[in-house]
Each structure stands twice: as C-alpha cells, then as structure tokens.
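S2.1 Query sequence (Aldehyde dehydrogenase (NADP(+)))
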Amino acid sequence: MITGQHYIGGHWCGQPEASNTSFNPAQNAALPWCFAEAGEAELHSLTEQATAAFALYRYVTAAARAGFLDAIATELEQRQAEIVSTMVQETALAPARAQSELGRTCNQLRLFATELRAPANDCSLPALPERQPLPRPALRLGKVPLGPVLVFAASNFPLAFSVAGGDTASALAAGCPVIVKAHNAHPATSELAAQAIASAADKTAMPAGVFSLVHARQHAFSEALLRHPAIKAVAFTGSEQLGMHFQRLIWQRPQPIPFFGELGSQNPLFVTPDYLAQHSEHFATQLAQSVLNGCGQFCTRPALVFVPKGAAVLQSQLKLHFGQAQAGAMLTAKIAKHYRDGCQALRQCAAVALLAEGQGEESACYTRPRLFATTANAFLQHGILQQEIFGPATVLIEYADTTQLQMLATTLQGQLTATLYATEQELAKMQALLQELEVHCGRLIYAQMPTGVEVCAAMQHGGPFPAATDSRYTAVGSRAVDRFLRPLCYQNFPNLNGDKA
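Output structure tokens follow.
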C-alpha cells in the first residue's frame, strides 16, 4: 500500500497533498497516489534523527551491518511484483528492465554485505622503540564513517541509483545513516523501496533514524537539507546544471563537505577502418541497441561516435535502425522537452546533418530517436557538440586518419567511458590514442558497448568532470564505500592481542 508519507525516525508521517501526484509517462496521465511535501518540521526531524542514529550506528559491528544489508535485499525480493508493477507505471520502462534493475539492486546490497564480512585490511606498523635517532610509535591506519549522508535519488535508475541503490547501500555499509530525497518522477516506487528498508531495519534492530525517506518537490527544501550542518556528505546523480548549483551551495557552507556528483557524459566511441570493414553490420546493430535501449536514458549511452571518413555502408545501416525505431516515452515530460530542445539545437547547426529520425508522434513524454552526422572540423568548432543530449540520439563524427583521431580525443571533456573498436593489429598501433583517452575517462573499453555496468570490486563508475565531481571515487562496485569513510590513524594503542598496534 502506498501511503504517500515520509519515513523519518522509524515512523511514517506527513499528510499527502492532492497536488503532489505520481505520473504515468506512457499514458500522459496522473496516477492515483498523492504524496506529502516536506517543510521546516521535517527538516528538523530528519537531521535530528540522523544525528542521533549516527551516535549509535557508527558502533554497530560490521557483521550486523552486513545482516542489515542482506535483510534489505530479501525484503525487496519479497516485494518484487508490486515494485516492478509500480516502477513500470511511473517510468514507462519495460517490466524486464524493472526486474533486471531490482536484481542489480539486491546484488549491490549483498556485495557490500560480503565485503563487510571480509577481514579488515587496515595498515599497521609495529613500534620501533630502539630506532635511532628517534623511536617510532606503533601506528594503525583505520577508517571511520563520515556521518549522516544525503542521497538524491536518480531519475533514470529508480532502483539501482535511488532509495535502496548503490549510494544508500555503500553509505549504510560504511556506518553512515542515510537520508534519501525521493525523486519526483517515481515517488511510489521510492516508497516501496523505503518500506523494504524500514522492515529490514526493524528485523535487524537497527537504530531509529538510520534511514529516512523524504518527499519534496520544492528545490528550497533540498537546498536547506544540503546546507544543514548535520549532513556530512552528499551523493547526487543528475544534470550538470543542478549538480553544480548544489556544489556551489556546499562550498558556501561554514564547513564544506564531500559532494559526490555524477553530472553528465557523452561516452565517446571510436571505430577504425579495418574493424568497420570486417564488422560493419554487427557494429551498427550493437550501436543502435546501445543508443536506443531504455529510450536512450542510460548515463553510459554512446552519444559521440567517431567513424572513418567515407563510412557510407555504416551510415546506411544505422539510418535503417534509427529510421524504423518508434517514438518512446521518456521518464518525464521535462526530460523529453530537454531532449527535443537539444536535438533542435543540433538541427539548427549548419555543420550538423540529420541522417535519420524515428517513427511516431512527439508530444508530452514521447520522443523520436535521431541519428546525426558531422565532420571532425565541425566538432572542433561548435561547442554545442560537446553538450550532452540525454536521450535516444547519437552523432557520427567523420575523421580523416588516426592522427586526427588522437587530436580530437584531446578536446574531450571528462567522461564516464571511452570505447575503442579496432582489430588487434590496429590496436597495437593505437597506444597513443589509448593513453590520451586514459586522461579523459573513468572506464576505457575495447570492442564492447559501454552500456551495462558490472557491479564488482574492479568497476570504476566515475571520471573527470563533468562525468563526476571527484574522479578519485566510483559510484558502483565495492569501492564505492570509500566515499563515506575517512582515514584515522591510531598511534600507540594496544590491539586486541595486547601488543602495541
């Protein structure tokens, strides 16, 4: 049952407002659920409860935190039918996508639980009392949680990057209470995930206030929460414009805090002549699927594709894929409008050609896929081509040779991914390009599409700005927990064995 309330301090509270409804983008119609709007009272309660919870939760054992995370995953699975049905209604994403994302969300939670049960890898150095000219004390480098973490749920991953997603899971694993600001595009899905976390917290006897969910459509509330001194770190996935607004607010705090933002990426993809000559049809199919999947609403969708000059066969193959694609419903009308506006801006650029456009009407949340083409020189001259268009569109950029390709790579902004399709013989000659791409991305890929992120210890999901606000950290995988921990050196303390450590 959807209550439309906030979850604060272990209790559901707040009065749903008739004007705050959920929305079905596929039907362009309001859903029957209404939601509360947070204000000053909720701000005070959220921060007070999270602060009180931190005083207890930071001392909860790693094994107990692992049990909590496992319990959340189990509770989510038990609610699978309702969560999937609700997510499909609120997002227009396919049921298979919703089921897959729920599985990924549960796997993330269990990954962090497994890591918590592994032996700690703190660095310890024994005392050297006889060392000359000065003795060395015993030293041990550990990690301690930062404190309450504010998580902004993402629009395009209603489960894996939202209420019970990777940011929440890694913060809870670190020993930090979490306050989640639900995304306005899927508040009912958010509540169902919050119900799972609340039930898990009760069953594992976690402190009240270890997790909270709040609904707020007004940016002023989010800004006030972000500036509150009780908040010690923020995780955000969204637009560069809003993310940088939040970053500036954090810089203005009396005590600035870490802001882990994922703000935008075009995920450039490079394909070489010999590879294309051998695999053109397969490459075109894979590229179209990657761009069009989920109506193009993946943060790792390839939006810039650098192709050799004269790749007429590839263009024909891609024009067929994009021209036959049907218009689809994006997550919100606002996202759809931004996509249409971005495509229109490209069409108004004389150096950019529209090669293909999908079928169907565009209105409200519905948009048509689009395939554009331009030249290397135009890419260098028109800054609009370096601006992300979030949705089912991509731009082919023709290059003359590998020398020009490497030069183009130097102009790229920070990216989540960069991909190279080349034969093994070509790859051996392209080390300079690969070394340049290492400067610009967080994940360098060979001969695979960038969409699809493996949740594991070896994954890096981040990159130089604007892909992320801090390229040293990942938002996916077991190392994501490091965002919410800080190093602490213990000097001259005895360990459990009675020795100095």
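Confidence is low (pLDDT under 50) at residues 496-501. DSSP finds 15 helices and 21 strands in the chain.
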